[in-house]
Amino acid sequence: MLLYIHVPFCRRKCSYCAFYSKVPEGDDMGLWERALTAEAETLSRRHGRPRVETVYMGGGTPSLLPAWLMERVAGLLRRCFDIAPGAEFSIEANPDSVDSWGLRDLLSLGVNRLSLGVQSLDDNDLKVLGRPHTASQALSAFEAARMAGFRNISLDLMWGLPGQRVATWLRQLRMVTRDLRPEHVSCYALTREPGAPLAERLDSGELTLPDENEQSRIFVYGAEHLEAHGYLHYEISNFARMGFHCRHNTGYWEGRDYLGLGPSAVSTVAGRRWENPRDLAAWAEEALAGRAGETAEELSPATRAREMVMLSLRTSRGLSYKAYRALTGRNFAEQHATLLKGLRQHGLVRMTRDGVRLSRGGMLVSNLILERLMGEA
Ligand code: SF4
User: Are residues 177 and 306 located together in one domain of the fold?
Assistant: First the structure.
C-alpha cells in the first residue's frame, strides 16, 4: 500500500497553482491534525492497519508544519499503519520554509527523501510564477538539506514558462547537474490552469508561452542533457540517478493500491476509489464523523483498463501486454494494430514482443497518442 498525506497549507498562492491549498489562519492546523487523526484511525480500522511501503507528504507546503506537529503526524502514522522496514518517506518542501535544524528533525522522524520545490533557478521566472522564494534561497535550501544529511533529494523544475528559451532552460539544467547533483529531478511542463492568475495574464496576451517548436526543443534537449549526466528518463516528467526513482509515484504508475489522507486526497483500494472534499472544513467534518472513505465507488473494468494504459505509457517501461491481457482478457497489439503500426513508422512508439512504450518523441505528444488509443478502446 502507498500512503499519501495532503498538507493543505501554503504561505501564499502561486500564480499557476491548481492544487488545493490555503493560507493557514486561526485554528486551521489544529483542525487539520484532529481530522487527520480521525481519518487515519478510521481507515486503519477498516483496512486492518495496512502495511505501507511508501509515505508521501505533499501539498500545499508540508515544510510549513511546525516541528511539534510533524512529530505528532509521524507518531500517528506509526500507530495507524504498519510502516515497512526501509519504507520510502518523502516530504515536499519549499526553499523558503526549510532550515538545517528543521531538516534534521525530519530525518530523525524517519523522513528519508526530500522533494524541493525549486521550479526555476531564474528570479524572473520565479516572479512570474508567484513563488515565495528566490533562486539563491533554493540553492541555500539544497545545501542545507545536504548538510542536514539528506542523501535522497529531488528537485522540482518547470519548463515551458513564459519567455523561456532552450538556452535558458539548459543553463539551469547545467547548474543542476554540475553544481547540485540531486538524486532525482522532476521537470513538469507548465499547464494553463483556468482561473489561475497566470492563465489570465496569458489569455490577455500580457505573457506568452514559447511556441510549439521551442517547447519541443526544451523537452528533448533537456531530457538529453539529463540523460547525458547520468539521470535515467524513467517517466515523462521524471529523471533519476540509478536506484533513486521515486518508489511512491512509481507505485501509482504501476496501478498499486493507495490511501490518501487530507482534503482533496484520492484513494484507490481493491478496485474502489474515493476522493476527499477539496475544502478543509468539509473534509474535516466528514473525517471527524468517521465517514472517511464512505463515498467509495467501484471502478469499472473499462476505467481500470484505460488507467493502466494511460499510466504505464507514461513510463519508460511502457505497457506490458501480459498485464493488459490479465486485466482485460484482450490482446493490446491486435486491438490497436493499425494505430500502433502508424505510430511506430513515425518513431513515436517502440514495440517489443512483451509490450509497447513511447519514444521520447512520443512522450512529447503523449496526450494526443493516448487520446487516439482511448478513442479506439
Ligand atoms: S507552494 Fe505549491 S501548492 Fe502552494 S500555492 Fe505554490 S504551487 Fe500551489
Answer: no
In testing the pocket of ligand 1, which one of 5, 14, 137 has its CB within 8 Å of the most ligand atoms? 14
Say yes or no: 44 and 139 in one domain: yes
- How far lies 375's CA from each of 155, 306, 339, 368, 370, in Å? 35, 10, 11, 10, 8
User: Is the CB–ligand 1 distance for residue 13 below 6 Å?
Assistant: yes
Ligand 1 nearest-atom number relative to CA 60: 3
Model confidence, pTM: 0.96
CATH number, domain of 53, equals 3.20.20.70
Number of structural domains, the chain? Answer: 2
Query: Is 17's C-beta closer than 6 angstroms to any atom of ligand 1?
Result: yes
The reply to whether 275 falls in a domain is no
Q: What distance in angstroms lies between residue 230's CA and the mean position of ligand 1's atoms?
A: 29
Q: Where are the beta strands (DSSP E) in 43-181?
A: 51-59, 82-93, 113-119, 153-159
Of all protein residues, whose CA lies closest to atom 3 belonging to ligand 1? 60
Give the nearest ligand 1 atom to 131 CA. 6
Long-range contacts of 234-237 (CB under 8 A, 24+ apart): 234/315, 234/316, 234/317, 235/314, 235/315, 235/316, 236/314, 236/358, 236/363, 236/366, 237/186, 237/187, 237/188, 237/189
Are the beta carbons of 229 and 249 closer than 8 angstroms?
Answer: no
Same domain, 9 and 133: yes
Residue 139 belongs to some domain of the structure: yes
Each residue's pLDDT tens digit in the chain (377 positions)?
Answer: 999 999 999 999 999 999 999 999 999 999 999 999 999 999 999 999 999 999 999 999 999 999 999 999 999 999 999 999 999 999 999 999 998 889 999 999 999 999 999 999 999 999 999 999 999 999 999 999 999 999 999 999 999 999 999 999 999 999 999 999 999 999 999 999 998 999 999 999 999 999 999 999 999 999 999 999 999 999 999 999 999 999 999 999 999 999 999 999 999 999 999 999 999 999 999 999 999 999 999 999 999 999 999 999 999 999 999 999 999 999 999 999 999 999 999 999 999 999 999 999 999 999 999 999 998 86
Domain of residue 31 covers 2-253
Rounded to the nearest whole angstrom, what is the distance from the C-alpha of residue 69 to the centroid of ligand 1?
20
Q: Is the CB of 14 under 6 A from ligand 1?
A: yes
**Of 12, 61, 119, 158, best ligand 1 pocket probe by most atoms within 8 Å of the beta carbon:** 61
